[in-house]
Every structure is written in C-alpha cells, then in structure tokens.
Amino acid sequence: MAPTRQMSRPEESTLDLGEFTLKYRGDALPQPELLVIGKRSGRHKAVHTFVNILDNDGNLVRQAAITPDIASFIFGSFEVRGSTEAFNIYESDLVVGKWSPRTRTNVSPDLVRHQRTIAEQSFTATGGKLAHHWPIFQKLKETGFGSIIRATLTLHQLCSSNCPFCSTILRNKRDSVSLTEAQAFVSTLYNEQAALNRNEFVRYNEEYRRLTGTDIRLKGLILSGGGQPNLWPHFSEFVRWLGELDLDVGLITNGFPPKIAEDVYERFKWVRLSITPESASPFYPDGRFDRQYIPASLRHNDSLTVGLSYVYGPWTDDDMLKRLDASAHENGFRYVRLLTDCNLTRQAQLKAHQDLADRLFRLGFIDEVGKPLSRIFHQLKYHGSQREAEELWSDGQCKLQSYNVFWDTTGHEENGYSHCYPCDSVTVLADEQGETDISVSERRFNADKWGTVKSTEVHRLFTEPLQPFFDPRDICASCLFMNNNRAVSDLVKRASYGDMNLDTSLEHLNFP
Ligand code: SF4
C-alpha cells in the first residue's frame, strides 16, 4: 500500500507507512517533536526531539532540533533508512533535500577511547564472569546438556516512557503473565533443575557445589519488564516470594511508582534505574530526571548496588552528562553506565561510541586512554559482523542458550503462553551490507525467528540436550553478545578445568 501523507499546517504532518505512523508536531513545547508510533495493538510511541547532523564521513557536526524541513527530510528517507538511521542526517543531503547513499568509513573498535574496567565487567554481562561457573561448561562438553543459571523476565509490557531508542516499540500492552505463571517458571529453573542435577549429573553438581555453595540451578534472576516491571500488579508479592529463595535478584526499571512500599526494593541484589531522554518520560517533574522520586531505601544504601543507565544519542547535551554524574554522587549510587543506541547498525554505533568517548574525555569524565575518572563508565557494546558470525558459530549453535534464558511475554494474550529466547538483543539486530542494504532491527520479540521453547516448557532447556532452534549465522550476524558466545566456546573447549584462573575482583557473579 502506498504511504499516505497528510499535511494540515507546515508545523504539523503525518505519514503512514509500514509498521509505523510518523507524526510531526512543530509547535510542541519545549521542543518540536517527531513521533514514531508503532501500529501494533500497543501503539507505543518514540518521541524524537533532536537529530544528528553529520559530515560526509559520518562524523557528528552538531545536534539539531527537528524543524519542518528536517521533519520533511526524515519522512522522505524513513522507509529506506529505518526508524533509527533516519535520524542521522548528512548535512550535504539536507541542503539538497534528498538522501543519497554513500560508502561509510569503517570505524575500528580499537579507535574508540575506552578501557574495560572491573565495573563494566561486574555490572554488565561481558562474558568475564562465566569462568566462575565452569562446572556447567564441563558438563556441557562431556554430556551435551545445558544448565540455566541466569534468567530475565519481562512479566508484562508496560512502560510510562517514550524513548526514541525503545527496543520493543512494536509490543502489545496486554501481553501480561499471572503471578502463578511467573512463580512456576522460576520454580522449574530453581527446584526442578537442582533436583535433576543432584540425581543425574552428580559429578558436575558436586564440583559446582564446592565452587559456588549450591546445586546447579537458577542463581541470578532479573526483572526487566517492558520498561517498568514495578508496574506489574503482582510485583511486590512476587518480589517477597523471591526473597524466600537463595537467589540473587536484579531490577531494571525506568522509574519507581509511588505505590510500591520502599522496603520491597531492599530485597534486590542490585537495581539499575534507566534514565531516558528527558522529553521521553512525562513523569519527570519539570522534565528533569534528577527530580524524580527515588525510594529512600535505595539512596546511600551499601547493602545493595544501585546504578544509573543512560543511552547516548542526539538528545544528549553536556549538561545531561554532568547531571548524571552528579546524581550518582548525591544519591550514593555506585555507577552510571553509558552506552549507545543498539538499533544503530555496527558502523553507525561505533561512530556514536567514538563521539561519546570524545565527549567524556572533553568533560573530564575519562582520561585520554578511556580510564574513568568519576562514577561514569562507558560500556563499549557494539554489533558483530557476518565474518565473525561464520567463525564463531561453525556448528550453527548460539551458546548463550546453554546458560541463559530470556522470557518475553509477546504473544501471551493470544496464545496463553509466550516464548523463551537466548538473549534480549534479538529485538535490536540491525544489519548492514552498505548504506543501501540495511536490514533494520525488529524492535519486538519474534518467536518465529529467535524463539526457543514455550514459557510453559522451560524445563526442556535443561532436560534435553542443547540444540539449535535457529542458525545464528543466518539471523544473528549483528549479535551484541559475541564475546559471551566466545567465552562459552573457550570454556567448553578446555582440556582441563583444574587450572582455572578466576578473577576475584569481579562482583555480581550470578549475572554472567
Ligand atoms: S543475538 Fe547472539 S546471543 Fe542472541 S540469540 Fe542471536 S546468537 Fe544468540
């Protein structure tokens, strides 16, 4: 169907195409807005207020508010460039009013000013913590069976924010699970898996007990829920129930609804508060993230780790970065994790990493080799390539699936069950073979491509031998977890495990 465009006034226009409706509101305050609205039943929207203006080599020249001319330019190139790249505009194209493809300058990750710190390895999943669970990889090597020690649950699909980089903008708000379903899922990975390993994989289980103090079973659980898991109606009851298990639990949320009792948060091992562009979260008082409500139980509390997370993009100015750092100090938070938009393709993402690192250096947050000088650390996370995919997965098997499960509730309303996935990055896999051949990220969970087992059959991930449900060389070339995949491959290939050298400075070992 041909795109339909309606122009009422120069400062207001709408374009209907594919899975999205674009709506420009030039008279919005305090900045003009371009909304990208998903057409699926959720009708989630991303609010864009700024774009990147680039030189012909793709370097950032400036960030610009969205004028009617820029909006018109984005409308014209959106279908070809997709919902993320369309907001990176070459200045010379803007002058002539038409996008033209060009050859990108390749950025090598080595050119980004960066040092991988203990904080980055402890508070994100870089693969560095996997060795601390080595008996499960010896078990995998010798028996072919996986062991699920880490899980993430979305629980529902609600969020109060409208981030431009939303990874699940095409989700359905009604795909929610019940408390009983969530408890059954955890119980299977915790109790059933432990019993199986005690009875059938005795040697590995005993080695694992010596190393970690428990049977092989679920060790770390993250609640991440469509933006705000604490809006799920059973959140407090579920967290109290989890508190009775010997399990490390982490929380990722965009905010804290006031109706949740503050002591509920004390049951977490760690809490990560995602800070959105300030125009994207209507609940920020006066449009300021640092004026939002934060439970007293999370401030200056040394018994759990609290951190901030922020995605760098055209919406970021120096003041925002300074206030992020100040907020971490004022609230006694351990870190501020900065990363770039994962919906960008590999080369655009590496360029964004370069910009971010240079800006952090200019502001005095890192030194000239990228070492952090404050609580901010820069997570250098970027897409893999087809060449790496072919080398890494010669057997066609994603290795994350051997120890990790991500349960997303997409499809739950319609089917009464939903699916498990090896990771959460399948929603943001953007591939490029050149600027004219971009396959944009799906921005939703697609079980037909990346689903493994139904949520009601999660036991199959440890009662059946590890099997590929899809070939990652065909659909995951831009995987964001290639390091983790590589770490598993290396652990499985080891000739012996007695000489393992474990890094004792790492924290949060149950979230590898
Ligand atoms: S993106 Fe990577 S980790 Fe995720 S399913 Fe694909 S291969 Fe596995």
TrEMBL record:
Keywords: Iron, Iron-sulfur, Metal-binding, S-adenosyl-L-methionine. Signal peptide: none annotated. One of its GO terms (molecular function) is iron-sulfur cluster binding. The keyword Ribosomal protein does not apply. The keyword Ribonucleoprotein does not apply. Its cofactor is [4Fe-4S] cluster. InterPro entries: Aldolase_TIM (IPR013785), rSAM (IPR007197), rSAM_sf (IPR058240). It comes from the Bacteria. Transmembrane segments: none annotated. Coiled coil: none annotated. This is Radical SAM protein. It comes from Gimibacter soli.
